[in-house]
Amino acid sequence: MKTVTRRAGFAILIAMLVILGILTYGFRYIQDGANWASFFGNENVTGTSVLTDRYGVTLATMSSGSITYADDYTTRLACYQVIGDKSGNIGTGALTHFAGRLSGFNYLYGTTNSKGKNVSLTLDAALNVRAYEALGDRPGAVLVSNYRTGEILCMTSTPSQDPADPSDSPAEGTYLNKGISSALTPGSTFKLVTLAAAIDTMPDIYNRTYTCSGSVDIGGDTINCTGVHGTQDIYGALANSCNCAFAQIAQEVGPNALETYADKLGFTESHSMNGIPTAAGRFDKASKGSSFLSWAGIGQYNDLVCPYSMLRYVSAIGNGGSMLEPAILKHGATDRQTSLLSSETAGAMKGFMRNNVTNNYGTGSFPGLQICAKSGTAEVGDGTSHAWFTGFLDDPSHPYAFVVVVEHGGGGLAAAGPIANTVLQALVN
Fold first, then answer.
1. Distances from the Cα of 406 to the Cαs of 29, 178, 427, in angstroms?
2. Which terminal CB of the chain, N or C, has fewer other CB atoms within 10 Å?
3. Is 80 exceeded by the pLDDT of residue 39?
């Protein structure tokens, strides 16, 4: 009797494992079946599919397992990381991630008798070309979105290569879409996070003044500034990007609030762009009173930021505190709004960022643009600095947010600012 019972138990266990296996396969098939069946070279995908930009410019064509790219050479270079290649080296590329859509995959029939399907991106290929040419031979990334709709209009990354004639030994970083898959030291652009925390937690922030003599002692360590700014209010502290002032502000805000704001503003987590995962950033909470906390509030220490996360943040500031999640897939945008700041704090931040331009950067550097911005020069420990420039246009007719990063590019305003102006002028005019 015990033998029968034992055998029955084994039979039930095996049956449960089989059912579990079927359920697991079913789940994975629903989740990944399109990508399984739609790999490059699958000759069962008999139809022709076209990937286009927002204006119908052909970026890539798939037909019977083969693929061809845009006719224009520079377009192929400028859009390489967004599109991807036939070898699948860029996992975040549209050809890989939207393979099921392009192949016309059906869960019942797979790719059998597939007629293919055209897929349009929100991207403006011509704008990508302008951004790519503005970056030149410098490694970096440019992102531009419409903060009213969430649509990404520009996403280019360098170095690049021609997907129609790929190199056997491409330059380091060629396979990385740096706008969404990299996390870099943010430098003074992170002061926008520290400032938001200060506005919300320091009631007297607008009545305070900070004196900068070129350096300040924090926790027994010296924090140097980029200049001697004298006595300044909080507007001047941000416009001057004063390390002395923000070293003290970081101490007053405290480690817990800084960590909370880095988290709630979306800098430490991975996001999803139409299902494509983005890189998570990093913020390490340092002890109050230590120089590490001040450096973290300044945007140094161990801080890391993904350009995409910065785009979300400046989009929220431009949009009154909330933002639509950025989208690269046309007709794939949602109406899901994410609130990052109160409308009052967002309004205050907008005023600070506009003041940066009018009283420091110079409106003449951005003619005709109602630009609100923050620059960043992020020291990376090898004697060079990443150049950042981020912000938005406070213009209902042109609601565009942007992020420009030039790796090892030097000063943020000098290296990244002109790229932002070139791209935004092309977009507005």
1. 41, 10, 20
2. N
3. no
